[in-house]
Amino acid sequence: MRDGDGAVSHVVGALHDVTDLRAVSEELERTKNDLGARVDARSRELADAQAGLVRKERLAVLGQLAGGMAHQIRNPLGAIKNAAYVLERHVSRQGGDEGPWALSIIHDEVKRANQIITHLLDYARVRAPIPRRVDVIALVEQVLAERSPPPHVEIERRLAQVPLLSVDVDQVHGALSNLVDNAVDAMGETLETGRQRLVLETLREGDFVVIALEDSGPGVAAEIEEHLFEPLFTTKPLGLGLGLVTARTLIEEQGGTLRLARSSAPGARFEVRLPLRRQEG
Ligand SMILES: Nc1ncnc2c1ncn2[C@@H]1O[C@H](COP(=O)(O)OP(=O)(O)OP(=O)(O)O)[C@@H](O)[C@H]1O
Ligand SMILES: [Mg+2]
Fold this sequence. Notes:
Number of strands: 7
Strand order of the largest sheet: 2-4-5-7-6
Shape: elongated
Order of helices and strands: HHEHEEHHEEHHEE
Bound molecules: adenosine-5'-triphosphate, magnesium ion
């Protein structure tokens, strides 16, 4: 305040203790952030769940369509195959190379088309599992015997004895077959690639049994890793891109999981994890 001459005569100060106010406002800010983070997390969960549902729905529709088409195409294929056998008899009487050559192409291609259809049907036909007690090592051996990897692939067994599992044997068998096929594909042709190794491993991890497959192929490139389990994703000229998504669906039907556990050198490692005790719901 100034006096009549304009000189400062008094100074007035007002002090407010805002400690409490500030504490409250900081607490409010924290709560707000916390709430925000929780809302964000919940929104993400919801978005994931929705994406999962959309994926399942899409897979179901694709599966039905594929299943229907596969059945329809099987009949004409059967007819082509039979007709080719009849032709074969005629052609063999006539002599010459061209006829047999063309017929062998028909046979091979019909066989391949049938394989594609079997694959599609496997995918479309995922049904509710019918669990049965099964010895995992016996199952692994059976898959190996059936898929019979080529001679340049050496098989290494690290098969630890694990408790019997209660799973749908056919479904787990189907999933493992797809994984073995992929591993063999990844390890390429004989001469260029040299000797290759496929490791099969079984182990117990708490309430789970793990079945792992390791190959000595090139592994999975980072840019394709996220697409691996998408239906119709393939990097193979004659691939369908249904093997892994089918395998994962089959394993999830048992209450288990399938994941890529290692993507690079010395090759890819896929792990199937199956529960010893099936959780309901
Ligand atoms: N062991 C592996 N090593 C490297 N890449 C792999 C391996 N397994 C799968 N992949 C990659 O994942 C892709 C998808 O595999 P998936 O089994 O679903 O389809 P696919 O083998 O191409 O065709 P198919 O429907 O005949 O199985 C493959 O094309 C390949 O690029
Ligand atoms: Mg495959």
